[in-house]
Amino acid sequence: MPFSRRRTLLRGLTGALIAPALAPLLPPFTKGHAMGAETSLPQAGRDLPIPASWTGVTGALARDDGEPLPQGTLRRYRSDDSPAPPASVRVQMDLFARLADLPAGPDGQDVTAAAAARGVTIDALATAIFGPGKFTRPTVILGYRLGSAQPGFALARIAVDRPEAAVRVTLCGLGPGRRVTLAHLATAHPAQFSAVLAAVCPIDG
């Protein structure tokens, strides 16, 4: 065999052996960044890894979701998921969808009264989230903007004397094509709501 052909063959074999060995070391393809921080989340899939930069953020499940949540992840529910989201999530999505025409305001604005005027009350959302039993009632619905026009919301119990304390929160974003995206967090600081919303509910995916 000529030397040039033998060298080409050796290069091909070497590449075939090295590529599989390096594959586990390569980062998975992701896109979507929140506020320029290291908060990449994959566009596809339900369970998303929580970036290390989101200190104190932990995921939670819908009360009627029987599938365990892997440690270090949050679960993203979408209205166009197949199979469909749990029944409690669909009720929440239907309620939040009524707020699509709320006027734009600064991120974190209290929209509780405006939501109630559209039939979306804290009690209705809380009942859908927690069921008919006893629960700690949320106190506020906050409004956000995803991109230039698409609204996002946070439902949480925020104490007047500790407004920055970590709380349980339900985040919801209304996206293109009437898509509704929702996630429950067991803990997150209010200052993190906007960044988490932007990553969990990207305007292009």
TrEMBL record:
For this UniProt entry, which residues form the secretion signal?
Answer: 1-23
Region Disordered: list its residue ranges: 59-86
Sorted keywords for this record are:
Signal
**Keyword Signal part of the UniProt annotation:** yes
The protein's name in its UniProt record: Uncharacterized protein
Q: Which organism does this sequence originate in?
A: Paenirhodobacter hankyongi
